Amino acid sequence: MAGIGLVGFAAPATADSCPSGALCAWYNKNFDGDPGTVYGDNNNLLQYSKFANVGSTYNNGTRCNVALYSGRNMTGSKFTLARGDGININPRGAYADGIASNDWCV
């Protein structure tokens, strides 16, 4: 994972602020603060400040993994985040400019 700019770990209880069914993003690492949330597939997450300036993200989907992309319209580097997992984003990695799009159930 380090090659694409992600740091994976099992999500601690602080990710509980992410609503069921959502992909959540925080400005800070380790799910600190209030999350930004999206549901469904999104071609441009960069319009949402917390995804454009992401420090950590969590998949609280109810049934699927979610693919995260560094480019809009599901382009660029791809990382599949398993349901119930969260990651910190490396500020110097592929997602340094944010999570640009997502695709559920991959």
UniProtKB/TrEMBL annotation:
InterPro entries named among the record's database cross-references: G_crystallin-like (IPR011024)
Superkingdom: Bacteria
Pfam families per UniProt: Inhibitor_I36
Protein name: Peptidase inhibitor
Organism of origin: Actinopolyspora mortivallis
Record lineage: Bacteria, Bacillati, Actinomycetota, Actinomycetes, Actinopolysporales
